[in-house]
Amino acid sequence: MKASGYKTGAFGKWGLGFIDTSGDPKNQGFDYFFGYNCQRMAHRYYPEYLWENQEKYFLDGNDWEKKAIYAQDVIHEKTMSFLEENKDEQLFMYVPLVAPHAELAVPDDEIFQKYRNRFGDEEPYIGKKGADYGPDLEIIMYQSQDYPRATYAAMVERIDIYVGEILEKVEALGLSENTIIMFASDNGPHQEGGNDPEFFNSNGPYRGFKRDLYEGGIRTPFIVKWPGKIQEGTFTDHISTFWDILPTLAEIVGFDNLPPLDGISFMPTLLNNKGQKQHKYLYWEFVEQGGKQAVRMGKWKAVKLQVRNTEETTVELYDLETDSSERNDLSKDYPEILKEMKGKMEDSHVTNPVFPLFADEGDEDLDIVIID
Q1: Which one, of 338, 336, 361, lies nearest residue 349 by Cα?
Q2: What local confidence, expressed as pLDDT, does residue 130 receive?
Q3: Are 7-98+159-270 and 282-361 in the same CATH fold?
Q4: Is there a contact between 98 and 42 (Cβ–Cβ < 8 Å)?
Q5: With 70 as the cut, is the pLDDT of residue 137 above it?
Q6: Class assignment of domain 7-98+159-270?
Q7: DSSP letters along 231-259, please?
Q8: Which of 118, 133, 252, 265 could form an S-S bond across to 247 if both were Cys, CB 3.0 to 4.6 Å?
Q9: 260 preceded by cis ω (within 30°)?
Q10: Are strands 292-297 and 300-305 parallel, antiparallel or unpaired?
Q11: What is the DSSP letter of 338?
Q12: Whole-prediction pTM value?
């Protein structure tokens, strides 16, 4: 986007590289960044500071105990200011909203009070000790929460308000007719920090949660608003994924200098045109919880569990056309399809000693802690 003449800004959570490394937002095409530059810090909603480009932006009054300034509110203010200040520019904004993410925390304001007594007598969540955030510093990873359901509901509404204000600002600035807005979730509902996705039916009909490779963990909403191009209220069953976003944006702005990618532009689907290319199959893997792999090929979905524990390894097969909830394992009924899907898993996996999927890929000297 930057190479195509766009003013670029990122606001929220960044976990691709620290300040002054190759992964710094400034070295990944962003003119301006404001938010968290650390996966671990992004689990706290009242941090001591955020990052504004290469400088710390201190939130006066916050520390690991005190909660004065809600970080996501500040990030949203910076988002809105950047939009206002660059209204006359070709503009690209990436807004990875943090909430609701792991820890449940929200200001005690009218939004929270609306839900305070809605869910009856709630069972409090007691915070658990988490990772070491510095030399000799052990903290509570997720804070205790007396009203986890009310807090979660208030966090979701707060995000709804942020998104609504962005849409209203685009409209007020006269930009709506020439602006594309995409909204998505990066994974299914989480269970950390006292969240109760079953109570809220957060994954609808789908099985599993965040960290699962069932549909409930990886199948998420994706909404696009493009006035004059996409008719309101339309739907598509095109199978796409996050690594398709980059080639799609490149096609939208006419950038033709991308390296070879796994992603496929879904521009034809957005415009309801013919010629949409399809993925032959999609592949996922997850290194925690014994290691997991999954492949989707057309209507078929295979899920492999406990890949590092060969005596406990299982491979399940589902027909998503008739069983999107993945309740009816067909692995014994379609052995040839199962064999093909297992072959796709083997072909797709790339060894990475830092994130070992199989027992023989790891480095005995590496201690791996993944916090997302």
Answers
A1: 361
A2: 52
A3: no
A4: yes
A5: no
A6: alpha beta
A7: -TT--------GGGHHHHHHHHHT---PP
A8: 265
A9: no
A10: antiparallel
A11: H
A12: 0.91
